[in-house]
Hints:
Elements: E1 2-4, E2 7-10, H1 14-25, E3 30-33, E4 50-53, H2 55-63, E5 76-78, E6 80-84, E7 92-96, E8 106-110, H3 111-123, E9 128-131, E10 135-140, E11 145-149, E12 154-157, E13 159-162, H4 169-174, E14 178-194, E15 201-207, E16 211-218, E17 222-230, H5 231-239, H6 242-252, E18 260-262, E19 269-278, E20 282-283, E21 286-288, H7 303-319, H8 330-358, H9 363-377, H10 380-391
Parallel strand pairs: 1-12, 2-3, 2-13, 3-9, 6-15, 13-21
Antiparallel strand pairs: 4-8, 5-8, 6-7, 10-11, 11-12, 14-17, 14-18, 14-19, 15-16, 16-17, 20-21
Helix pairs in contact: 1-3, 1-7, 7-8
Amino acid sequence: MQYSSDICVIGNGAVGKAAALALAQAGISVTLLAPSVAPEAASASWDVRVYALNQIAHDLLDGLKVWQAMDASRVAAVDAMDVRGDGAQAGRLAFDAYSARTGALAWIVEERNLAAALDSALKFAPNLRTVTAKATDMHCDAERATLTLDNGDAVDCKLIVGADGAQSWVRGRCDIDIDYRTYGQRAIVTNFECEKPHRGVAYQWFTAQEGIVALLPLPGERASLVWSAPEALATTLLAESASQLAERVTALSQHVLGHLRPVQPELVRGFPLSLLRPHSIVAPRVARVGDAAHVVHPLAGHGMNLGFGDVAGLVKTLVEREPQRDCGDERVLARYARARKEDILLMQVATDGLQRLFCNDFEPLRVVRNLGLNLVNNLPVIKRQLIAHALGKRP
């Protein structure tokens, strides 16, 4: 069978689904190529994969009617952030939504909750066809792009949108050079019950030896752990029980949330961390979004937000193109790349720089970075700029 549409989106994650939905709702015909995956069993447990979504992500999902479709009882607003350094003279930097004149700094959303809402919205999207197959070959020329599928079918389109993750098949087929560096860390994620109320505060500790530890608020007296741990420590943490991990985090956090207990059923996972910087996010008849376009350290929690920013930028660029230019026109794609260049570069430099700065155990550097946290905390102008970037807005 030969499928034909203006755009083919490849990817089964949140960014790919949001891209397909947004483009279809903008009046563009879309084929979503989403390989079939085994359905996840319904569960009342809390998903260990969570995202801290900023205002840009919120506005995109709200405009797509996806935000309203999520289970609101499982979404937690971040009302304040408390960032702390390490050592005897640990620095501290604090933000709050009230000072920023906004309703929330971010929202903590489970991957499962977001995926379910996107899947529901896709069922009713106009101009959208979902094909559960895998691409095995790709050919692009001056007029069109063609994808050959593993079931013998083909997709003919004007533009391929690669949203297929960090190990992107689309990026590989475009033969684009990348800068890659492993951080020698793994993100250890799990959920805890808290003895003390978190009051909507997201905590983060930068330590040289243990890595970067974040406790994010979940609904009720629960918190989600994201611990960017050095490889050797990560191996130890994954070998321990969830109860032992809870004891470690309770001590490291200095009981800021009291005694922590694993959320039942106990589940701890680890994900390798790396920096991936392709030299371009576009190629002839191809645009990439999300982790297929860039991978950053999760210390700022903005990997998913960058992906949703890509979606918003791509949709805006395509909607505003001249009538005589199709979706895969070279000039149109160049505009998308320019529109996203600053935000992507800023996040790559910021997250990589902070990771290098705070994972160095050199004592003079430790003193300087802690002083820096305290200094920024007392400079309102700089704090407002940081808050604006955290929200996904221009200061």
